[in-house]
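Much of what follows relies on a compact textual record of a protein's fold. A record is reproduced here so that you can trace the correspondence yourselves:
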Amino acid sequence: MNVTATDATLGAVITDVDLASVTDDLWEAIHASFLEYGVLIFPGQHLTEDEQGELALRFGNPEKMHPQQPGPSVQLSNQKPNGELTNPEDEGYRLLKGNEGWHTDSTYMPLAAKAGMLAALVVPPKNGETEFADMRAAWDELDQDTQKNLEGLSAYHSLYYSQSRSGYIHTTDHMYGFHDKGAPLRPIVKTHPETGRKSIYTGRHAYGIPGMSSQESETLLSDLLESACQAPRTYKHSWCVGDIVVWDNRCVMHRARPYDRNHTRTLRASRIAGEPESELAPTFADHRASDFRPSSNNKSSLAG
């Protein structure tokens, strides 16, 4: 297995490896690189859906992101099942456009994701990259006073919120993300459960820091995200069909880059659920959910 670091503070290109037949020893090497680099790029693997599913299971239990999702992966595409391309009136179009903002997967769910995996199936002739940002290095760059001020702060996370900021209003349909489970409250500073390194843990889904006005919270979160996601802490991956990219959702943010929507872009995604000990968060009422119903994991309403 050949490991070549990118020019950024995160990411490594892995070659001379066959992900369709990962032995236990090879997995140990892959996992060690995963924790070190945060993002692993495997060019030209061309995995089948089943092979990708087997690889995803090495990282943990895959999340089910769609009720009709038969296996551990789902296709993220601007092409509908009938072959037509999505348009701005389609929910799928709006979700893919929203993904062009910096984010961490599933922070709007009670149990956030541990890792993400994408396989390129169809790519546009240009653009449509995926960009990654190193939140460990972003934390390390902060001065001690700023770090001290951020420690102890938390923010709510909501897909309703982030989509509305992108100009899209969604209703509660009990699909993944648009649920009635409430808005999780998550620390802005996260300690990685395996490496112990601290990182910034916000993204476009984050809002409403308790103890701050809406404007104060929005300003702090926006400024923090803007300054964090800068070179040399970012890596942009230009897709080729067959590529596999996997990243550590606990310390890396990502975003899709725009492309000509007259061309098809299809990626097969596997999202790995986090361990409850480190990724489960208490939830609070989100007024954007039309039929919020408290549960054992929901707390009194504090989110605005």
